[in-house]
Amino acid sequence: MEDLTGRRTVVVTGASSGIGLAAAVDLASRGDRVVLVGRDPARLRSAGDRVREISGERPELFRADFAVLDDVRRLAEQLRAAYDRIDVLANNAGAIVLQPVTTIDGFELTLQANHLAPFLLSNLLRDRIGRMVVTASGAHRSGALDPDDLNVTLHRYRPMRAYGTSKQANILFTAEAARRWPEVSAYSFHPGVVRTRFGNESPLVALGMRLLPFRSPEKGAETLVWLANQDPDRLVGGGYYRDRRLRRPLSKASDPALAARLWTASAEAVGLDG
Fold first, then answer.
1. Which pLDDT score is estimated for 211?
2. What gap in Å lies between CA 215 and CA 148, rounded to an integer?
């Protein structure tokens, strides 16, 4: 790894636990100024304490609920006011939703939290971002994305189909961002199957998380940290990585025409000019 860290500003969403917290701790230990974004105030404060234990410096904490797009807009305003430059934006926040839920903004919750919210945040911060790393997943293989109907997964809802659709969107968004924003280095990655808080509402999922050989959050965060640190000349813009290696996602997540359609539909959905 070519270590490019220093006093960079690194914003990590979904930083209260799991991969986000593990990545924040690692980056802070290397000297980066990490900024933590999370939904739950108590867990966010606890995460801040953990980062301070490692780095000796309390990180800035920002609360935002990605199920509410006005929260994302407010977060973007706060970050713009606080930082002239965001060297790395780690779009890591995400959820898997066990029952069909429509947000106050009118979208299926998984797609909004995992794709539309980070899409909006990234666009609102575009002129401040140097590098963007997006937590995707091999679960994109179960995606059923339809840019003409972003709520397609609400029809005969299945949690993993909805989650896979949002992860398909993550990979397409990253690739399209690299094409549209040549000044921003953009990468997505699959962290592996990680033991996190995902699915805690389901006793069956919680049991599986205890019994199956999942990766630790620290292991899952390794590729995120690597992508945040690696010389861009050694990476492929818009590329999808797993275990620090470039991978080719399924065709449904690597179609430039579909990526362009998704971008247009997403911009319209969140009220941005395409």
1. 53
2. 36
Residue 215 near residue 19 (C-beta atoms within 8 A): no
Residue 1 has a pLDDT of: 43
Cα–Cα distance, 151 to 223 (Å, whole number): 31
Residues in the chain: 274
Chunked mean pLDDT (size 10), the chain, 274 residues: 66 97 97 97 98 94 98 98 98 94 98 98 98 97 96 95 97 98 98 64 52 77 97 97 96 97 98 85
Q: What is the pLDDT of residue 253?
A: 95
In DSSP terms, 60 is beta-bridged to 35
Alpha-carbon torsion (221, 225, 247, 154), positive or negative: positive
Pairwise CA distance, residues 254 & 252, whole Å: 6
Q: List the structure tokens of 271.
A: 């009220």
CA 133, CA 173: separation in Å to the nearest integer?
11
| pTM more than 0.90 | yes
| CA distances in angstroms from 90 to 20, 148, 211, 271, listed in the order given | 8, 28, 29, 23
Q: Give CA–CA dist 150/82, Å, rounded.
A: 33
Which of 227, 260, 21, 235 shows the shortest CA–CA distance to 136? Answer: 227
Provide the 8-state DSSP code for 223: H
User: What is the set of active-site residues?
Assistant: 163
The dihedral of CA 200, 28, 36, 243: what is its sign? negative
Quickly list DSSP for 242-272. ETTEEEPPPGGGS-HHHHHHHHHHHHHHHT-
36 neighbors 60 (Cβ within 8 angstroms): yes
Helix-then-strand count for the chain, H and E? 9, 8
Separation of alpha carbons 2 and 185, rounded Å: 16
